[in-house]
Write a structure and sequence with these properties.
Length: about 300
């Protein structure tokens, strides 16, 4: 039997290959709109990235007894939403970042207007792809669209970004910080897992509830590790300027809990995420491996 690390590396490589191939194929057939706009869209989506959300989606499908490949198109839509959010987050009106994934952000590589339009187009494209995802019946597609809309809109990711912008330079409690990140980061991660699980028509409410706890906890863990990397990471490894959150006086877990306290909290979140999967057998092993990966990653 492969070790957890070997098993996860193999799974992530398979997911990345499958997702990147699907994205490249579909984006190459994106129509006859502005060539510059399409270049910006491809630049933003195909320019690297860990593909964590698509991998979680495919791992969740496996956890409920489905082939990971059955979640390929839904997983791709999550990457489109993620890419759109990064384009907009990096804009001068938002975080004003010039580096993403080790290269120029979209508004620097192209221009601000094109970046905004590329993000808009990717968001719309995600729902179009999901509405026509092959191998799924209409009720499942509709349920997935609801999940993605809720997670990416004002009740999820966009709402969290608004709270983030309003919180710069302010003192937040740990509860307020968690509320922000459950929306900004956690909502799309939770949707990734739930959408993957929805590929199984017979998935039960107990399974969905357990996977929701897992994904919400993992979403917080992802952000805690992100905050730690912002103060401890290497710009050449993390792909964005080290210390950028500190420079903008953004509230973070280390700033509230201290570095040691943030690491302790990260360990607690990992334990909670793993505990939520106790009802799953070996089919949940990749999700368990993913939890360990998220809290140990270096970029």
């Amino acid at each position: 039997m492969p070790t957890p690390n070997t098993r996860l590396v193999t799974f992530l490589e398979h997911c990345r290959s499958r997702i990147d191939t699907e994205l490249e194929c579909r984006l190459a057939m994106s129509g006859n709109s502005s060539e510059r706009l399409q270049q910006a869209m491809r630049y933003s989506v195909l320019g690297g990235g860990k593909r964590i959300r698509p991998a979680l989606c495919m791992a969740a499908a496996a956890a409920v007894g489905q082939s990971p490949g059955s979640a390929t198109v839904p997983a791709c839509t999550l990457e489109l939403i993620h890419a759109y959010s990064l384009i907009h987050d990096d804009l001068p009106a938002m975080d004003d970042d010039e580096l993403r994934r080790g290269r120029a952000t979209t508004h620097i590589a192209f221009d601000e207007a094109t970046a905004i339009l590329a993000g808009d187009a990717l968001q719309a494209m995600a729902f179009g792809w999901l509405a026509e995802a092959p191998g799924l019946d209409d009720q499942i597609r509709l349920a997935m669209i609801r999940e993605l809309a809720s997670a990416s809109g004002h009740l999820g990711m966009v709402g969290g970004q608004a709270i983030d912008l309003e919180s710069v330079g302010k003192s937040l409690t740990i509860d307020q910080l968690e509320t922000m990140h459950r929306h900004k980061t956690g909502a799309l991660i939770a949707a990734s897992v739930r959408i993957g699980a929805l590929t199984a028509p017979e998935v039960g409410e107990e399974q969905l509830a357990a996977l929701t706890i897992y994904s919400q906890t993992l979403g917080l863990a992802f952000q805690v590790q992100d905050d730690l990397l912002d103060i401890e990471g290497d710009t050449t490894v993390i792909g964005k300027p080290q210390g950028s959150d500190l420079a903008r006086s953004k509230p973070t877990y280390p700033s509230l809990l201290g570095t040691a306290g943030a690491r302790d909290y990260l360990s607690q979140l990992l334990d909670s995420a793993l505990s939520s999967l106790e009802g799953f057998g070996k089919e949940g092993d990749i999700l368990r491996d993913m939890a360990g990966y998220v809290v140990a990653r270096t970029h």
